[in-house]
């Protein structure tokens, strides 16, 4: 038993090291004074952070990512919540296939989704690629995250409290406002945070659906990755991206695990 436990802990440690050691290297290199990024760093500096904070390309790409992420998250919250209520609270013919179709976009390879949306926008609909097309593209897979969170919370909630509220004379809107929404609030927030993080990090689908001359932060990193004069700044931006991606996921995990309070904040 003790040997098995040691083997499991060793495997866990090796797995975490493979995943997180490269991220630690990126964080350290963002402070590395050596432009060749010798490891371990001989000295540290904040110069690259200062340059990154005034880099117009990186800042513009950051704002584009934030715009796309917030808009895609808003769309996903509305449509994902509506789909979750429809599929969880009602029984109808084709319910399971519809549920599969909603979840499917998150499982498709990004390049397939990107090419399909690119062809749909440009060939079928005749729409020029731009920020709006990227937002719609991001919303297709962000909806899945919100949908899964809301469906899981609705299953735990049941319908007894809502039925009791209606029996006491409350209207449907009043019941939703005073009973359903408070219990659903943390699931919506968790789903929104995960959707934003997913949109903010996305690069493959964005490459096929964003307009020419526009860049999100991940695309800016990729385009400048092999430019020696931009390498220090890329490390800083990558470090920021690691933090920005980690915080929403951590908060969403905490909120999703809040079952003791019935989903209340």
TrEMBL record:
Q: How does it sit in the membrane?
A: Multi-pass membrane protein
Q: Which Pfam families match?
A: BPD_transp_1 (PF00528)
SUPFAM superfamilies named among the record's database cross-references: MetI-like
From its record, what is one biological process in GO terms? transmembrane transport
Q: Which InterPro entries match?
A: Bact_Polyamine_Transport, MetI-like, MetI-like_sf
Q: Does the keyword NAD apply?
A: no
Q: Name one GO cellular component term.
A: plasma membrane
- Stretches that traverse the bilayer: 7-31, 68-87, 99-117, 129-151, 187-211, 231-251
Mind listing the UniProt keywords for this protein, alphabetically? Cell membrane, Membrane, Transmembrane, Transmembrane helix, Transport
**Domain ABC transmembrane type-1 as annotated: residue spans:** 62-252
Is the Cell membrane keyword given for this protein? yes
| Compartments in which it is found | Cell membrane
Listed Gene3D superfamilies: MetI-like (1.10.3720.10)
Per the record, the similarity remark reads: Belongs to the binding-protein-dependent transport system permease family. CysTW subfamily.
In Swiss-Prot or TrEMBL terms, this protein is called Putative spermidine/putrescine transport system permease protein
């Amino acid at each position: 038993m003790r040997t098995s436990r040691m083997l499991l802990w060793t495997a866990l440690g090796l797995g975490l090291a493979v995943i997180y050691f490269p991220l630690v290297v990126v964080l350290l290199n963002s402070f590395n004074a050596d432009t060749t990024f010798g490891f371990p760093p001989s000295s540290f500096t904040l110069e690259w952070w200062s340059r990154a904070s005034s880099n117009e390309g990186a800042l513009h790409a950051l704002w584009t990512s934030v715009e796309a992420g917030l808009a895609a998250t808003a769309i996903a919250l509305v449509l994902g919540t509506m789909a979750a209520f429809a599929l969880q609270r009602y029984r109808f013919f084709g319910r399971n296939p519809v549920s599969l179709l909603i979840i499917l976009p998150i499982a498709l390879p990004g390049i397939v989704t990107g090419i399909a949306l690119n062809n749909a926008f440009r060939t079928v609909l005749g729409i020029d690629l731009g920020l709006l097309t990227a937002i719609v593209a991001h919303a297709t897979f962000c909806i899945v995250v919100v949908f899964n969170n809301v469906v899981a919370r609705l299953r735990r909630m049941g319908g007894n409290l809502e039925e009791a509220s209606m029996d006491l004379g409350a209207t449907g809107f009043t019941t939703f406002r005073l009973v359903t929404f408070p219990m659903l609030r943390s699931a919506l927030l968790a789903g929104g945070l995960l959707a934003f993080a997913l949109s903010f990090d996305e690069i493959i689908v964005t490459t096929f659906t964003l307009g020419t001359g526009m860049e999100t932060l991940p695309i800016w990193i990729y385009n400048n990755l092999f430019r020696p004069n931009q390498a220090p700044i890329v490390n800083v931006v990558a470090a920021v991206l690691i933090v920005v991606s980690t915080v929403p996921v951590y908060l969403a995990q905490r909120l999703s695990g809040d079952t003791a309070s019935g989903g209340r904040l």
